[in-house]
């Protein structure tokens, strides 16, 4: 499966001349060790945020959507902004695992596991919003097309919101399967190394009886390819369908054919930024700098500057069309509500422009691409910018649409609206901290494929053993 | 060929036993059943047993879980009352009476509860018209703050006890203070009482006084009365601060008459011309063809100048060139329509009204537009009488005093003096039905019935009687005022008998009385217009007496709002939440200022886009302290174009006492204290006030914040179409041509329906409901909005929710300005769900909760709705309303809205108030979308009616109606037409086909195919220009 050519000019994908054993040791040891203090601090903060989110949602469900500051004109605000934002973030994982797998991009192995985990957690967070933005969340099951006793009553297949239901649930299912199937060999590794009964039992169950037989590997590889093939169109389709929520409507600023590619590019953009944020933290906290290398960071920064520029072109195209269409409603939305800095929400448009289009241009410089601090800072900036993008699309289109009589008062969120968003951060990071503690954060098996280890290394290693006395050898390799 | 098979191991070659085993076991293991206990598999009926256990446990769980379901009792009629069929409404003709106002109505009574009032079509005065206040008055019946039993010294008492207490103090007579009484029998009852107790007298006191007109008419016509104004006969109308469409005198009648003059017959277009001279923006000024602004201190100068101009003189004493030009033009228009011209003024200054009478006389209005054949009876109070009484009270000359309908402790300009006088009386009795400011100070309160519980009669004009009959048994221990007086007068009969006897005698028999009661009105045989002799000398005297009043830097005008009027509607949440037609504000009073004053005083420049945006998007408004004659009041400020530059306006009727009710408590401030007594009459203005900007801000609940449809990116003429009458006469088809141009990219007007879409076009056979609204007739009064609230159980959300844009109105009236910022033209557009045939809301609902009926109705299925609000977002008209909280108290979490919503919402959810709910309409739960249903329940009822009679449905053919929707029925101006658009003879089809030139749909180019159409607004202005857009100079950047 891995008959790839390795260039002598390229940097190695894993630093430090690791042996297979070292790889296993480096990645699995944190699972077996006690978490660090830093981990506890992060975990508790995340759980606290999650609890605040749970309370915010409790208020909203008990007292009504009126707990938020939405109104007769602005029916969606922070809720759907956050939904689209999280879904966008959930794009990088599958892109990295699926598309890069198909393109044989070896560097993906260093980051794919965590990126996929991030995808799954992000989609989980995203899913909260369309569910809890419903006025009657207890009736949410109405969106499922199940046989019922209500006569011919069925879901409305014309509704983009229903397409969302299918798109998101499919994406979540496939991503989860993909992630989990990749985890099997690594769980087996943890199981095999386990020194406590409980760990052996739990990881044993999680490993689904993986023995590492050739047949297992062969099936595993086939499954990976099949799932990669399935996921690849999903990467494009999910955000395309999310963009249909807006593109198929009649509202100026939403009714735009450019949305599908623009949304997908934006999603990859924000997804990679989020991967950067997390990876930079993981490699620091778990000391995995040899596996998540500067090369990885640079590669992802290249994707960021590319997709950021695509998004920038989309913004400018929209503006151009706003003028070129000679449609006064479109023109008002684009030229006034958005592009005019001193209009009520002008700040959000220019915030978006600054964060998404201007600042990523810094990555044209190699030095900047390879600078960890600049990358970390930019990854945050990009995600702020992408949040603004969704806010701009949703709120600045809605708040002043066709009838000037219905133009809205200024919309700013209530504490519970913010709390819901903060809560999804809590959910995300709680999951992520648990993941980083209990799961191999780097695909151990996969990274071994790309390990640049040769006979020379082996020989060098063997040389030591050859001159070793028998009892020394026995002592050294006893465990 | 077997030996050619490649082999991998010796085992495979020899096919050893061990090898066979390993091959067998590599991929599969046998099912584990081999080792299982055979007993299980061989049990006789394991599956059946299992099912039994499952069945039993499920049933047990179900029974256990259903134990605590509350038992709700519905008690059927053991003996069904005659004439009451459950689910079928009874209708009774009765009359809305309120301080002299009289509107004949039909009360809809369901299961013994009056739930809706409709105008009585038989009444020749209002002819089926109603106002917002009439529509809302049914809710007053269920007001939680009504006095529920007689009170003595503020404590519960009995009728016997209060009768005894009052009887003891009647020896020296009593002063009866009432608002205008126009009931013939009540007048007799009062007279009887006065005769029985010598020394008694009756003083009429009107909160909003018209004593200026009464006295002027006494001087010029020799009659202290108010004539019939005939706006329908007037070709030219000049109103000088008289809000005759909203609040002035018999405004429901005037609205109907005015609309007649404004409706255009396409074949023979004529239109009345209305010029308004105004101080602060009013509903009437907004409807005027031309409006000119003046200061309150200029009132005398304006009427004098107008008098001079119509009598052939020159306009002098007016410095403002625009105003001067306006007066000259108005005079010219009036003279051109001599004999069909009318001038009305709202001033309460006798001399001003005398000069206005002089103008009308010069225009030969008498017998044409001013009719003296049957004078209007609805206002009779003279302020000086009451002022004299207050003096007497303070002098200790009044021992016993009664109040009926009058509330001087709240409305009198010098309320403190009145209160001091009241304290000096030994016995004070209030018959008011609410614990209002005066009643609270009285020793005894004997609450009166609500008019829907009362018997009675009302004479709106001489000879025009409207009868009252109870529609419900009195809810509380109340007693009708007339009954009390009769009792105290020692009469043997009660008021019902009295009334019956009186009218039976007059009409000639009990049958005639029954018939009159059934129709609700008694109408004189025929009426011819009559003039009256005129005393010109009085005009000369008045002209001499009128001098310009001293003007300060800022001037103040007190006005009434359409909803609250003098303040009676203050505890009516429907009226409080009705957006004021002029300001679009709810739940508060405020200071109205002009854009010019806003710039200098508030530092808000509406021509500056950023400042205009900030003003519009923030509900928190700046607060200004106004001081007039040493009295101060701090209120938020709203910038309302159409207000004179340095004049400010404040609405009366707010700032009620806590006890007036939960909806009125803490809302606004009382502005009556700023009125003055000048020359014996109350002046609702002050020509010298000081304004001082305060540091704080105050949130005002506005339902509309942006008021022009012109943007820098283009004029949104697809939203609204208006033009001048000159342009219309020049090219009647202009609107049609404009629509054709707008739709050109999609096949033009003719082919738009099929070419504007890629989908096939369907036939729409059978009934197809449609609505058409004549924007020329609509004056924006808001009666339809309240009618819709009442008919469709539209929730009240309270101020805090309106501020957040959460109001639930299914029908709103959009108000747009065009033209200059200081004095714009105004157009009102009633907007409800447009029931689009190609509705954008329908295809986006994931659960198909909103869908299209075969009759063209965009339906909402509340129990299917999950509340994604996608439909509301995708509605270009933004008419969909979401239940943000549990406004109706229908949640399964009991009382969970208590800390969330205003007390006024709690009041609406009181068991008493809930009696007003229409049982035919679902009360919507939290979390679902709702919107106009075209009164679906009425359509069903109408269709059933036709079906039962085996005939086609009638919607307006030859004036026959099987059904009318609530807004249509409420409209005094008959602006709304509704019916079956597939019926060639229905009113809606006729309306659309005969007005093809002015017809349009809002946002037609979206191809949503609305079933609501409008007729373009046409203004008979002085403005030059033939094209309708020529009258709109470019609006400043995103201003107002």
Architecture blueprint of SSEs:
The complex is a heterodimer of chains A (479) and B (1040).
Chain A (H helix, E strand, L loop, with lengths): L19 H13 L4 H27 L14 H12 L1 H12 L9 H21 L27 H34 L3 H10 L7 H34 L11 H27 L8 H31 L3 H11 L7 H13 L7 H4 L2 H27 L16 H24 L5 H6 L5 H13 L2 H7 L3
Chain B lengths: L9 H5 L2 H11 L10 H5 L3 H20 L24 E9 L2 E10 L2 E7 L12 H10 L9 E2 L2 E2 L2 H9 L7 E4 L5 H13 L4 E4 L6 H10 L5 E4 L6 E5 L10 H12 L10 E6 L4 H5 L2 E4 L5 H12 L10 H16 L4 E5 L4 H13 L7 E7 L6 H12 L5 E5 L3 H4 L3 H9 L3 E4 L6 H5 L2 E2 L10 E6 L2 E5 L12 H8 L6 H13 L2 H10 L1 E2 L13 H10 L8 E6 L13 H4 L8 E2 L4 E3 L1 H8 L6 H9 L2 E9 L2 E9 L7 E5 L24 E3 L2 E3 L1 E15 L1 E2 L7 E2 L2 E2 L6 E3 H6 L3 H9 L5 H8 L13 E6 L8 H10 L6 H5 L8 E7 L6 E7 L8 H5 L5 E3 L5 E3 L9 H4 L7 E2 L20 H6 L20 E2 L5 H13 L6 E3 L2 E2 L4 H5 L5 E5 L6 H8 L4 E2 L11 E4 L1 E3 L21
Parallel strand pairs in B: 6-7, 6-14, 9-10, 9-12, 10-11, 14-15, 15-16, 20-25, 22-24, 32-45, 33-44
Antiparallel strand pairs in B: 1-2, 2-3, 4-5, 4-16, 8-13, 17-18, 18-19, 20-28, 21-29, 22-25, 23-24, 23-28, 26-27, 30-31, 33-42, 34-35, 36-37, 38-39, 40-41, 43-44
Helix pairs in contact in B: 5-28, 7-18, 8-13, 11-12, 11-13, 13-21, 14-16, 19-20
Structure in words:
The complex is a heterodimer of chains A (479) and B (1040). Chain A is mainly α. Chain A contains 18 helices and no strands. The mean pLDDT of chain A is 87. In chain B, β40 and β41 (960-961) form a beta hairpin. The termini of chain B are far apart. Chain B folds into 5 domains: 2-30, no CATH class; 151-209 and 381-449 and 479-511, Rossmann fold (3-Layer(aba) Sandwich); 211-374, Dimethylsulfoxide Reductase, domain 2 (3-Layer(aba) Sandwich); 550-702, Barwin-like endoglucanases (Beta Barrel); 720-759 and 770-1031, Alpha-Beta Plaits (2-Layer Sandwich), CATH 3.30.70.20. Chain B is built from 35 helices and 45 strands. Residues 1025-1040 of chain B have low confidence and may be disordered. By secondary structure, chain B is α/β, with parallel strands linked by helices. In chain B, α8 packs across α13 (350-362), α11 (299-310) crosses α12 and α19 (495-507) packs across α20 (510-519). At the A-B interface, α6 and α11 of A face α24, β31, β34, α30 and α31 of B.
């Amino acid at each position: 499966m891995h008959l790839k050519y390795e260039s002598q000019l390229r940097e190695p994908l894993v630093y430090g001349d690791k042996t297979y054993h070292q790889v296993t040791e480096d990645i699995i040891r944190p699972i077996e060790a006690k978490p660090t203090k830093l981990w506890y601090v992060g975990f508790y903060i995340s759980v606290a945020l999650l609890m605040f989110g749970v309370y915010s949602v409790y208020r909203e469900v008990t007292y009504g959507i009126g707990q938020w500051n939405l109104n007769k004109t602005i029916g969606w605000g922070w809720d759907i902004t956050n939904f689209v934002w999280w879904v966008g973030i959930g794009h990088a994982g599958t892109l990295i695992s699926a598309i890069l797998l198909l393109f044989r991009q070896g560097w993906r192995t260093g980051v794919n596991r965590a990126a996929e985990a991030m995808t799954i957690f992000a989609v989980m967070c995203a899913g909260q919003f369309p569910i809890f933005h419903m006025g009657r969340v207890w009736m949410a099951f109405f969106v499922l097309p199940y046989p019922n006793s209500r006569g011919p009553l069925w879901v409305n297949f014309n509704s983009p919101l229903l397409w969302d239901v299918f798109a998101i649930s499919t994406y979540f299912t496939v991503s989860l399967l993909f992630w989990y199937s990749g985890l099997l060999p690594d769980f087996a590794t943890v199981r095999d190394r386990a020194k406590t009964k409980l760990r052996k039992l739990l990881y044993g169950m999680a490993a689904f009886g993986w023995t590492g037989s050739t047949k297992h590997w062969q099936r595993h590889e086939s499954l990976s390819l099949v799932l990669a093939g399935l996921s690849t169109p999903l990467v494009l389709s999910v955000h395309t369908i999310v963009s249909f929520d807006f593109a198929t409507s009649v509202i100026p600023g939403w009714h735009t054919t450019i949305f599908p590619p623009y949304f997908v590019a934006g999603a990859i953009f924000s997804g990679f930024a989020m991967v950067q944020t997390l990876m930079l933290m993981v490699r620091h906290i778990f000391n995995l700098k040899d596996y998540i290398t500067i090369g990885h960071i640079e590669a992802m920064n290249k994707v960021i500057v590319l997709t950021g520029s695509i998004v920038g072109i989309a913004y400018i195209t929209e503006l151009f069309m706003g003028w070129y269409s000679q449609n006064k409603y479109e023109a008002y939305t684009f030229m006034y509500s958005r592009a005019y800095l001193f209009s009520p929400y002008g700040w959000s448009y220019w915030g978006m422009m600054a964060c998404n289009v201007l600042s990523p241009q810094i990555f044209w410089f190699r030095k900047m691409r390879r600078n960890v601090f600049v990358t970390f800072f930019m990854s945050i900036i990009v995600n702020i910018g992408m949040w603004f993008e969704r806010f701009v699309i949703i709120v600045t289109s809605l708040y002043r649409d066709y009838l000037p009589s219905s133009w809205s008062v200024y919309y700013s969120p209530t504490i519970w609206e913010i709390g819901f968003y903060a809560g999804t951060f809590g959910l995300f990071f709680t999951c992520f901290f648990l993941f980083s503690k209990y799961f191999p954060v780097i695909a151990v098996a996969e990274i071994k494929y790309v390990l640049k280890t040769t006979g020379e290394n082996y020989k060098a290693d063997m040389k030591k053993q050859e001159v070793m006395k028998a009892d020394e050898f026995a002592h050294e390799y006893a465990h | 060929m077997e030996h050619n098979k490649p082999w991998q191991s010796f085992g495979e070659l020899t096919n050893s036993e061990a090898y066979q085993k390993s091959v067998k076991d590599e991929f599969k293991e046998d099912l584990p059943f081999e080792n299982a206990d055979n007993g299980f598999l061989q049990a006789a009926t394991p599956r059946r047993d299992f099912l039994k256990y499952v069945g039993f446990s499920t049933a047990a769980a179900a029974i256990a879980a259903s134990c605590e379901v509350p038992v709700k009792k519905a008690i059927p009629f053991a003996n069904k009352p005659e004439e009451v069929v459950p689910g079928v409404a009874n209708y009774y003709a009765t009359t809305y009476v309120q301080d002299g106002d009289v509107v004949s109505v039909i009360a809809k009574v369901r299961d013994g509860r009056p739930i809706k009032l409709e105008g009585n079509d038989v009444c020749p005065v209002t002819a089926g018209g109603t106002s917002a206040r009439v529509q809302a008055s049914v809710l007053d019946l269920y007001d939680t703050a009504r006095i529920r039993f007689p009170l003595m010294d503020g404590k519960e008492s009995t009728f016997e006890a209060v009768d005894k207490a009052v009887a003891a103090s009647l020896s020296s007579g009593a002063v009866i203070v009432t608002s205008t009484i126009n009931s013939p029998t009540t007048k007799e009852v009062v007279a009887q009482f006065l005769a029985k107790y010598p020394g008694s007298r009756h003083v009429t006191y009107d909160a909003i006084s018209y004593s200026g007109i009464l006295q002027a008419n006494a001087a010029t016509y020799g009659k202290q009365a108010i004539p019939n104004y005939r706006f329908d006969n007037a070709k030219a109308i000049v109103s000088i601060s008289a809000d005759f469409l909203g609040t002035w005198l018999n405004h429901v009648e005037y609205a109907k008459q005015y609309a007649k003059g404004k409706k255009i017959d396409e074949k023979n277009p004529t239109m009345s011309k209305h010029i308004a001279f105004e101080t602060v923006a009013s509903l009437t000024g907004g409807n005027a063809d031309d409006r000119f602004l003046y200061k309150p201190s200029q009132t005398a100068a304006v009427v004098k100048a107008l008098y001079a101009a119509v009598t052939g003189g020159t306009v002098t004493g007016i410095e403002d060139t625009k105003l001067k030009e306006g007066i000259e033009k108005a005079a010219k228009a009036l003279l051109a329509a001599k004999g069909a011209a009318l001038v009305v003024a709202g001033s309460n200054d006798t001399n001003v009204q005398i000069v206005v009478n002089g103008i009308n006389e010069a225009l030969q209005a008498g017998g044409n537009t001013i009719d003296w054949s049957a004078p209007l009876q609805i206002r009779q109070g003279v302020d000086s009488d009451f002022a004299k009484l207050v003096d007497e009270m303070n002098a200790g000359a009044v021992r016993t005093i009664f109040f009926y309908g009058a509330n001087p402790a709240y409305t009198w300009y010098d309320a403190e003096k009145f209160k001091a006088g009241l304290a000096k009386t030994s016995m004070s009795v209030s018959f008011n039905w609410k614990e209002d400011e005066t009643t609270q100070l009285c020793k005894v309160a004997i609450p009166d019935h609500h008019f829907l519980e009362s018997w009675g009669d009302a004479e709106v004009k001489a000879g025009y009687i409207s009868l009252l009959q109870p529609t419900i048994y009195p809810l509380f221990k109340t007693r009708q005022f007339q009954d009390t007086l009769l009792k105290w007068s020692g009469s043997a009969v009660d008021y019902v008998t009295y009334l019956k006897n009186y009218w039976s005698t007059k009409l000639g028999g009990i049958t005639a009385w029954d018939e009159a009661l059934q129709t609700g009105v008694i109408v004189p045989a025929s009426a011819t217009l009559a003039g009256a002799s005129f005393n010109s000398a009085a005009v000369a005297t008045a002209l001499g007496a009128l001098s310009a009043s001293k003007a300060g830097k800022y001037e103040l005008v007190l006005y009434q709002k359409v909803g609250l009027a003098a303040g009676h509607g203050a505890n009516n949440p429907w009226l409080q939440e009705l957006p004021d037609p002029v300001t679009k504000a709810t739940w508060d009073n405020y200071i109205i200022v002009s854009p010019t004053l806003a710039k200098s005083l508030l530092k808000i420049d509406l021509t500056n886009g950023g400042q205009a945006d900030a003003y519009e998007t923030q509900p928190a408004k700046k607060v200004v302290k106004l001081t007039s004659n040493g009295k101060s009041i701090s209120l938020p400020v709203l910038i309302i174009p159409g207000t004179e530059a340095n004049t400010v306006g404040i609405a009366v009727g707010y700032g009620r006492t806590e006890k007036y009710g939960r909806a009125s408590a803490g809302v606004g401030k009382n502005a009556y204290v700023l009125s003055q007594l000048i020359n014996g009459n109350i002046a609702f203005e002050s020509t010298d006030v000081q304004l001082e900007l305060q540091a704080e801000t105050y949130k005002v609940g506005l339902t509309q914040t942006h008021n022009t449809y012109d943007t820098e990116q283009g004029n949104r003429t697809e939203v609204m179409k208006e033009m001048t009458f000159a342009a219309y006469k020049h090219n009647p088809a202009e609107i049609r041509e404009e629509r054709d141009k707008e739709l050109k990219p999609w096949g033009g007007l003719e082919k738009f329906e099929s070419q504007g879409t890629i989908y096939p076009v369907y036939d729409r056979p059978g009934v197809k409901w449609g609505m058409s609204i004549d924007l020329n007739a609509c004056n924006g009064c808001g009666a339809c909005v309240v009618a819709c609230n009442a008919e469709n159980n539209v929730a009240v959300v309270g101020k805090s929710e309106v501020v957040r844009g959460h109001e639930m109105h299914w029908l709103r009236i959009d108000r747009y300005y065009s033209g200059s910022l200081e004095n714009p033209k105004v157009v009102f557009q009633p907007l409800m769900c447009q029931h689009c045939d190609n509705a954008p809301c329908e295809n986006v609902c994931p659960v198909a909760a909103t869908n299209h009926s075969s009759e063209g109705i965009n339906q909402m299925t509340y129990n299917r709705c999950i509340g994604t609000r996608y439909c509301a977002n995708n509605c270009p008209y933004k008419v969909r309303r979401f239940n943000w909280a549990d406004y109706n108290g229908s949640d399964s979490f009991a009382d969970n809205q208590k800390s969330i919503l205003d007390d006024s919402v709690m009041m609406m959810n009181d068991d008493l108030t809930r009696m007003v709910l229409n049982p035919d309409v679902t009360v919507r739960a939290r979390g679902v979308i709702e919107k106009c249903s075209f009164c679906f329940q009425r359509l069903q009822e109408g269709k059933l009616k036709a079906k039962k009679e085996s005939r086609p449905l009638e919607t307006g053919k030859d004036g026959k109606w099987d059904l009318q929707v609530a807004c249509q029925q409420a409209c005094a101006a008959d602006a709304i037409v509704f019916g079956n658009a597939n019926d060639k003879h229905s009113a809606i089809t006729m309306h659309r086909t005969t007005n093809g030139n002015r017809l349009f749909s809002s946002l037609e180019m979206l191809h949503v195919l609305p079933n609501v159409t409008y007729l373009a607004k046409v203004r008979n202005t002085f403005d030059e220009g033939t094209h309708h857009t020529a009258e709109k100079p470019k609006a400043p950047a995103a201003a107002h």
